[in-house]
Automatic annotation (TrEMBL):
Residue ranges crossing the lipid bilayer per the database entry: 63-80, 92-117, 129-152, 164-189, 195-214, 226-244, 274-295, 307-328, 372-392
Signal peptide extent: none
Recorded superkingdom: Bacteria
Name of protein: Putative antiporter
Localization in the cell: Membrane
Organism: Gordonia effusa NBRC 100432
Family: Belongs to the monovalent cation:proton antiporter 2 (CPA2) transporter (TC 2.A.37) family.
KW Calcium (keyword) present: no
InterPro entries, per the entry: Cation/H_exchanger_TM (IPR006153), Na+/solute_symporter_sf (IPR038770)
PANTHER family to which the protein is assigned, alphabetical: NAPA-TYPE SODIUM/HYDROGEN ANTIPORTER, SODIUM ION_PROTON EXCHANGER (EUROFUNG)
Gene Ontology annotations for the cellular component aspect, listed alphabetically: membrane
Molecular function GO labels: antiporter activity
Membrane topology: Multi-pass membrane protein
């Protein structure tokens, strides 16, 4: 339904720009666009007009779903191209420590909370193990697109603290996509009958295959870029990302894993060759996906005291666990106190990655609509908080550096 796509895109872009004017991530406005158009506001206040303009079930529109799927795959794939492998090699100890703690501790915290969440909040098709694992993944991720934007705005992207944050985020998210793929396989094929071990073996094979063919794929893209057909490099990247998602989806793994691995195959591209594709993804496709996610939200569920209580518990555990984990990993990796605090602040932003995981959980029947809403609101809250937290911690870092510099004079 083209009118639905047009309305969703206009609302998402408009509210996204408005959010930016107030110093908030565009994601906030884009997600709120879906909330306003969905059952929480427009569908509640004026249901007849909502049905005439958006259709009877806009959240599940095939056209919106197709554009959102493309947006998710490109978001994840292009985020993976930001991985700076040379920096990873230079700061391997620090990145490894931050990533390991930043992933494992929130994952365990999410599993712990998931074990306490009442069964009524589980999805209809959810087993306990799938629910707790997926909630753990939701608490463990960070979001490269949101973090990158914040670092650019604060002029931190070229500094070591910015590069450490991005590198740690990429490695952490790689672990999250692998676990998400395992949960997806568990939900779709089950653990009985021998299919699940075969699916996990296929996942390991995909990871090994990605590592082996990476040099040849990059060499091919380099040649294409240098040829007279260099303008088709972006098209080749899109094909690789979609093919990667389709391949892992066919193996009963989550399509986002294939998109992420395809982005690793592509690697960083110099000369801004991917800039037009990134621009279209962030200004058109991503807003449609985020607004579509907002259409699934019914914030009237927050009127239920039990939902509100568990939402507050998940939010608190997510923020504290991620901050403490990244801080601990950074300190063990040799960073000073306020630098470690900056890592904890930056990696707390969940952004669109969190919403992707929430959407996967809802689509697989693992998350109930209430838990889906809580996870999406977690993404929203942490994305808003990350900027001010980073400003505070980096200013303290600069103050400490200035004091130490004066003492050496």
């Amino acid at each position: 339904m083209l009118s639905l796509l047009a309305v969703v895109l206009i609302a998402a872009v408009g509210l996204g720009l408005l959010a930016r004017r107030f110093g908030l991530p565009a994601l906030v406005g884009e997600l709120l666009a879906g909330v306003v158009l969905g059952p929480s506001v427009f569908g509640y206040v004026w249901p007849d007009a909502s049905e005439r303009l958006l259709g009877s079930d806009p959240a599940n529109s095939p056209a919106l779903s197709a554009v959102s799927t493309l947006g998710v795959l490109l978001l994840v794939g292009l985020a993976a191209t930001e991985l700076d492998e040379e920096f990873l090699k230079r700061r391997a100890a620090a990145v490894g420590s931050i990533s390991a703690f930043g992933f494992a501790i929130p994952l365990l915290a999410g599993i712990g909370v998931g074990l306490l969440v009442p069964q009524q909040f589980h999805g209809l098709d959810s087993a306990n193990v799938e629910f707790v694992l997926l909630l753990g993944v939701a608490l463990s991720v960070s979001a490269i697109p949101v973090i990158t934007r914040i670092l650019v705005d604060l002029d931190l992207l070229k500094r070591d603290i910015g590069q450490l944050t991005l590198a740690s985020c990429a490695v952490t998210d790689m672990g999250a996509w692998v676990v998400l793929a395992a949960v997806s396989a568990l939900a779709t094929v089950g653990i009985s009958g021998g299919q699940f071990p075969l699916t996990i073996a296929a996942m390991i094979g995909v990871l090994v295959f990605t590592w082996l063919v990476r040099p040849w794929v990059r060499r091919g893209l380099d040649r294409l870029e240098a040829s007279s057909h260099g303008g088709y490099t972006s098209a080749a990247v899109v094909v690789l990302i979609i093919a990667g998602g389709a391949a892992t989806d066919a193996m009963h793994l989550e399509a986002a894993l294939g998109a992420f691995l395809a982005g690793i195959l592509v690697g960083k591209r110099g000369g801004g060759v991917l800039a037009p594709l990134q621009s279209v993804t962030t200004t058109v496709l991503a807003p449609v996906f985020l607004a579509g996610a907002g259409l699934h939200l019914d914030v009237t569920d927050l009127g239920d005291p039990q939902t509100l209580m568990w939402g507050a518990v998940v939010l608190l555990v997510a923020i504290v666990a991620k901050f403490a984990a990244a801080y601990l990993g950074a300190r063990i990796g040799g960073l000073a106190h306020w630098e470690a605090a900056s890592l904890g602040a930056g990696l707390n932003a969940r952004g669109a990655v969190e919403i992707i995981i929430a959407t996967v959980g809802l689509n697989l029947g693992i998350f109930s609509p209430q838990v889906y809403m809580v996870v999406v609101l977690l993404a929203l809250a942490t994305s808003i908080m990350a900027g001010p937290m980073l400003i505070y911690t980096t200013r303290r870092t600069e103050q400490v550096e200035a004091i130490e510099s004066n003492q050496h004079i």
